[in-house]
Amino acid sequence: MLRQETEKIEKQIQKIKHTLAHVYERVEKLPLSRYHRNKLIDNEFFRYKPNMNIKQIRPKRLETACVIVVLAMIVFVGWRVAHVIFFDDWWILMGGIYGLLVAYIIVQQFIVSYFIYRDPYAKAKKNPLVKIVKPKVSVVIATKNERFIIFDTVYSALNCSYKNLEVCIVNDGSDDNFTAYNIDELVKANPGRVRAKHLERNEGKRKAMRHGFYLAEGEIIVFLDSDTIVEYEAIEKLVACMVDDPHYGAIVGYCRALNADYNWLTRMQDGWYHSAFTVGKGMEHSLGTVSCCSGILSAYRREAIEPCIDRWAEDWFLGQEFWAGDDRQLTAYVCGGNKYTINKNLKQWRTGYCETALSISETPYKFKKFVMQQVRWMQSWTRVMCFTFPWWYKGRHPLVAIDYYLRMGLSYLAPIIAVNNLIIAPLTGHWDSTAIYLGGLTALSFLFAMDFKLYNPDTGYKWLYRVAFTFVSVSCLYFLLYYSLWTLRKNDWLTR
CA angle at residue 381 from 207 to 479, to 5 degrees? Predict the structure, then answer.
């Protein structure tokens, strides 16, 4: 009987293609044991681990990719310069200048991340101090209505290679009648290693994280999203980097979509996540400042966030409390907000990115939820832009400051440029402007797709989803930025 049940479960596992994409949707129909879920989790990480040190070992295909990027950028920049010089029409001129600046940003990100970035763990593991100094780590998880995945999230932290560790869970007013019970079961099953606090009402993620901070005893606080699973060595690698370099106030790991194979939307997000980390954060780390240590998986020194934790948790903007963008603004305090907005005697910390500290996190698989997530992130972008604008250039590499300010300004111009090139230009007979705009988008999207294929050589044609994401951004996400500005004061659906 037991054997028949086991074979039945194995057949069901075959149907979900050996990935986690459908596990949490089907878990009520298919009560997989933790053993079987762990096998699926291990399979997910096995897909990514072989290529995560690619910039360190610099194989031939990375060198080829570097040459392609450099040549493509020379051609693209030359094209844009000629476009600016030889056209007198001011609409076309504006589009040419915009394209030139975008090309500069992409040039810098690819070249710096490919040629300069080195995983900080490669250096840290050679430091004898890392093997001796084992600071206490507190993994803080703020959760609401995460009935099933909370088990895998917590056990991925508890069973990781770093042992001087506790898990602090804050139940942010769950109303599903299961999450609170499951959290209590985790506490009972792991006495002394798991602690929990139940909030009577939903207070929002920032305040829940603050409760977790005060519940925690560790010198290093690892903030982990409640729908994120960490690889066995991920936390140890983040801690090793911080022990090796005392100037790190925070460091973020690499993340992919847990449910990448669920549908077309999750596949696109998976490709986008990849390039945001390998190219974007790789560049920022190389220049000394990662502007957003993602809430998915990031480690902070307690002393780096203790001065700001209350102000951050109760942030006010435009006359009311602001809830969005917890990770971006907390990083901003560490990067200089403490020093320039709280007390000039406080330290301005470095922030880093460890590419081999792996995690997988659930992404929205319905378009409505994806749009809501994007609006929250864009609201956060606006809020943090206003917060950091007066002082971001101080005490950091000029290239990372230029990149940051340019991205700020160009993000608000992007919808206007898109309308100009895709609607106004054709209506006024400037088809050449439309062709150049679409050609530039295609070229840049193929560069990001190439980066995805470089790290994921055995994924067939999935790189096409990264190309598709660029055009979804232009046709939809660009314009959500203006909607996010219109709804900046709207907090009602920004809860966990």
Answer: 125
Residue 141 bridge partners (DSSP): 169
Residue type, 193: R
Residue whose entry in the numeric block shows the structure tokens 């209505």: 145
The residues, ordered by sequence, that sit 6+ positions from 304 with a Cβ below 8 Å of its Cβ are 249, 250, 334, 338, 347, 349
What is the rounded distance in angstroms from the CA atom of residue 289 to the CA atom of residue 335? 7
Q: Give me the phi and psi of 206, to 5 degrees please.
A: -60, -50
The residues with which 351 forms a beta bridge, in sequence order, are 250
Contacts of 44 (CB under 8 A, 6+ apart): 19, 20, 229, 256, 258, 360
- Cα–Cα nearest to 471, from 449, 456, 490, 496: 449
CA distances, 201 to each of 157, 224, 256, 374 (Å): 26, 21, 31, 25
Q: Which two tokens stand for residue 23?
A: 């596990």
Q: Which residue has the tokens 């099933």?
A: 148
| Whole-structure pTM value | 0.88
CB atoms within 10 A of CB 320: 11
Q: Find all residues with CB under 8 Å of 280, minimum gap 6, and list them.
A: 109, 113
* Beta pairing, strands 220-224 & 248-257: unpaired
Helix axes 149-158, 179-189, angle to 10 degrees: 20
pLDDT at position 242 over 90:
yes
Least confident of 227-231, 384-388, 485-489: 485-489
List the one residue out of 295, 373, 324, 374 whose CA is nearest residue 490: 324
Tokens (6 digits) for 479: 């314009």
Residue whose structure tokens are 């219109």:
486
Residues in the chain: 496
